[in-house]
Amino acid sequence: MLKDRRIALIEDDEIMGASIEQRLRLEGAEVLWLKQMQRAIGALRTPRAPIDAVICDIRLPDGTGEELFVTLCRTVKPPPFLFITGQGGIDQAVRLLRGGAADYITKPFEMSRFLERLSQLILPLPGSCDNSLLGASPAARRIGDLVAQAARGERTVLIRGGPGTGKALVARRVHQLSDRSFAPFVQVDLARAAVLEELQTAASSVSEGTLFLNGLERLPAKAQDWLMGWLDSAPPARLILACGDDMNGAVLEGSFRPDLFYRMDQFEIPIPPLRDRPEDAVWLLHRLFASLNARREPPFRGISALADQAVLDHDWPLNGRELRTRLVQAMETAPGDLIFPSDLFPERQTAAGKPLLSLSETRDAAERAQILRALEQTRGQTAEAARLLRVSRTTLWEKMQKLGL
Fold first, then answer.
1. 256-286 tens-digit pLDDT
2. pLDDT tens digits, residue range 46-82?
3. Domain residue spans in the chain?
């Protein structure tokens, strides 16, 4: 993400400055290191080449980072600013965010976290190929690797993930990267009432393209029989399937034919939920925001770092689907030109006036929610729910009795 980027570093501390400069250069960035506010103003007003981002300490020997930022804003639109501050400067940093700065980070910080925050500020290079599909986390990069492998092969692909995790997006990317990209990509959502007729129509029109069946665990019995016969006929099309996390339960319970499930020579791509990769929730937030904001008049100035933190802390039970819904609502109702946590999570304002629960009540409420979620995923199968919750069946039963479930 930082390769071939030009970063301005405004830092007078020799040790910290040298450490940051060295790491940025290792990441492939070109670094312009400046140690005084006055010299930085001239360098940023008329740079020799475009600056992709500015890293700026709030305390400088001849002024402050805030003075630098405000001075630049009077005459030019500055690059994204990432401010470095101590604990005592957080109020000042928040004030800068309200004034249009991109983000801040408090000292001391881990270099990996610092680089992650910096990377989120930088827009893709014009004309560059952005291979990001579901995020920038190690888990998202692993999904990208699996997509590339699947595209090079011909095996049936099984994409596993909860609602809103981007299964259809992954399926389409596999098709686009494959040798079948010239042929049709036909999607069938298997929860519909007339799914058998739609499935037969899709299979007759897909030719040598890709047939994508979404919601495999909901495929009716008659449609399963037909699909088995279609596979036996050795069709020229490639098959990509998507299912939820409870597919194995459907096979074990007998609602899905085991011989059909194992008949398909599967290349599996699992998609973890956003709660397990929160940095991708922030990545997706900014990706969606850029797309929506480009069509808005007047546009928002941006998303506050406080909103980013709120997104990191949220559990996202409906994954990207929930995130997009919250962002669209926030952009319709936000009173200012920056998105804040209260815009994304308006229910928290209502909850703010309520009395706090005791720690015991909070723990019970959290356990109740997780148990209900596990039971819903396993269709009431307590043994499977206990496995998901990583407790014994006896422990789960006792907790259910205690919580009145």
1. 999 999 888 789 999 999 999 998 999 999 9
2. 888 889 999 999 999 999 999 999 999 888 888 889 9
3. 6-121, 138-272, 275-352, 359-402
> Does 127 have pLDDT greater than 60?
no
- The closest alpha carbon to 44, from 97, 93, 7, 91, belongs to 7
For the structural domain made of 359-402, what CATH number should be given? 1.10.10
Q: Which two tokens stand for residue 3?
A: 């390769």
State the architecture of 275-352 in CATH terms. Answer: Orthogonal Bundle (1.10)
Fold observed for domain 138-272: Rossmann fold (3.40.50)
pLDDT tens digit sequence for 362-385: 788 788 888 877 876 776 677 788
Percent of the chain clearing pLDDT 90 (strictly above): 45
Average pLDDT over all residues of the chain? 86
Give the integer Cα–Cα distance in Å for 168 and 185. 11
Q: Interior CA angle at 265 toward 198 and 164, to 5°?
A: 55
Whether the pLDDT of residue 351 is over 60: the answer is no
Do 138-272 and 6-121 fall under one CATH topology? Answer: yes
Length, in residues, of the chain: 405
| CATH no. of 6-121 | 3.40.50.2300
- Average of pLDDT values for 115-140? 70
